């Protein structure tokens, strides 16, 4: 008669035993990024956030390149060639530090580098990707415009042929990394449909004024892109794609990272609330001993680890080449909404201390308000899923 194996003890830091699903290489990636964030971001991010700037962005980019975090799921050209799950774990750990740091990495790798890697010429790949993977060149991604966010097909930025050159005119808005980028991947209308361009930011007519007075993503560089008669050679266009499928495929890759990253912000807030509940005393005992507080913690844990399981499932599907855009919408819609709710509930447990920058909760909550909107609003992802479920298009 066999003896049943002894059940492992319950781990509040991994209540569902999700680490059992990870390979040693996955854990090594996660621990490397977690250690880097603990050393280089967490001691300083509250001050950066309060000042509304990311003063060491170029140095941070080089350090992120050194640990293989930039374009990490891409192959070749100095990229790490990591799995989708490993990239997701990195996003989770980066956003547990701050959404602005994860946005830096996401825009660099999942938008700018991904666009060049998938749609660029070999010359463009050789020119840009190794330097971007090393963090020597920062990239940005110009799609959203002042009057066209959820409807990119109506963009007004236009590229016109002039001999063998292209001349670009237009504006892009809410562009992460824009003011520090060395290359901007800009999408524009042309006579032959929407095209993408790799625009060196030192080109005459290009400027990227930084957007100030934000109350969210304050430890991040956000800019407007201004293109006034920007003249580019013929080889600046990304040759392998025409139409919206180009930028939308890049956005799908970035949204996947958000599915994981939002759970990092939620985990950080949950852990702050749990620690506070164990030590904060009212009425003669820790508040974690009261039923209402325990109910909040239990509900937060359920949604947090359900969200991480969902992210893990989507990552395995991506690694198998079976992940659909509708499934990414499922994850982005659910996980960001639940992450915000976890932050709000954590704030109630911390009481007045919850609004202080001494704790990460309010910083994460305000950051997530931006994450909720960018890479597709709640409403857009609801419509994506609604169309997939019913077969009826409600977008127009």
TrEMBL record:
Residue ranges occupied by any Acyl-CoA dehydrogenase/oxidase N-terminal domain in the UniProt entry:
24-136
* Required co-factors: FAD
Q: Does this entry carry the keyword Oxidoreductase?
A: yes
Keywords attached to this Swiss-Prot or TrEMBL record, sorted alphabetically, are: FAD, Flavoprotein, Oxidoreductase, Transit peptide
- Limits of the Acyl-CoA oxidase/dehydrogenase middle domain: 140-230
- Acyl-CoA dehydrogenase/oxidase C-terminal domain residues are 243-389
Source species, domain of life? Bacteria
Please indicate if the UniProt record lists Membrane as a keyword: no
Q: Which family does it belong to?
A: Belongs to the acyl-CoA dehydrogenase family.
User: What PANTHER family does the record point to?
Assistant: GLUTARYL-COA DEHYDROGENASE, MITOCHONDRIAL (PTHR42807)
From the Swiss-Prot or TrEMBL record, give the protein name. Answer: Acyl-CoA dehydrogenase family protein
Q: Which organism is it from?
A: Streptomyces neyagawaensis
């Amino acid at each position: 008669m066999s003896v049943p194996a002894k059940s492992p003890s319950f781990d509040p830091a991994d209540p569902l035993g999700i680490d059992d699903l990870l390979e040693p290489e996955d854990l090594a990636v996660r621990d490397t990024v977690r250690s880097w964030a603990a050393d280089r971001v967490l001691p300083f991010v509250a001050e950066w956030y309060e000042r509304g700037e990311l003063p060491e962005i170029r140095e941070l980019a080089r350090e992120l390149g050194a640990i293989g975090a930039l374009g990490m799921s891409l192959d070749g050209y100095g990229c790490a060639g990591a799995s989708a799950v490993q990239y997701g774990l990195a996003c989770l750990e980066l956003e547990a530090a701050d959404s602005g740091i994860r946005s830096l990495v996401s825009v660099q790798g999942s938008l700018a580098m991904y666009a060049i890697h998938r749609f660029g010429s070999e010359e463009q790949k050789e020119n840009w990707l190794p330097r971007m993977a090393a963090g020597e060149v920062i990239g940005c991604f110009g799609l959203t415009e002042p009057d066209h966010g959820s409807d990119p097909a109506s963009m007004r930025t236009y590229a016109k042929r002039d001999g063998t050159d292209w001349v670009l005119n237009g504006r892009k808005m809410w562009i992460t990394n824009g003011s520090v980028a060395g290359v901007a991947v800009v999408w524009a209308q042309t006579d032959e449909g929407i095209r993408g361009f790799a625009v060196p930011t030192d080109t005459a007519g290009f400027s990227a004024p930084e957007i100030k007075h934000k109350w969210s993503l304050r430890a991040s560089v956000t800019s407007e892109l201004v293109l006034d008669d920007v003249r580019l050679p013929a080889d600046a266009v990304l040759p392998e794609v025409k139409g919206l499928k180009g930028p939308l495929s890049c956005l799908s890759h970035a949204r996947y990272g958000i599915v994981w990253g939002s759970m990092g912000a939620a985990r950080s807030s949950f852990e702050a609330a749990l620690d506070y509940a164990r030590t904060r005393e009212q009425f003669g005992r820790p508040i974690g001993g009261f039923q209402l507080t325990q109910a909040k913690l239990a509900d937060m844990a359920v949604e947090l680890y359900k969200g991480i399981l969902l992210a893990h499932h989507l990552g395995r599907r991506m690694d198998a080449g079976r992940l659909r855009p509708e499934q990414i919408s499922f994850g982005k819609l659910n996980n960001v909404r639940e992450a915000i709710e976890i932050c709000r509930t954590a704030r109630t447990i911390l009481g007045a201390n919850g609004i202080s920058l001494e704790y990460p909760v309010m910083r994460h909550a305000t950051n997530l308000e931006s994450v909720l909107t960018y890479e597709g609003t709640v409403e857009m992802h609801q419509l994506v899923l609604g169309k997939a479920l019913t077969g009826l298009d409600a977008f127009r």
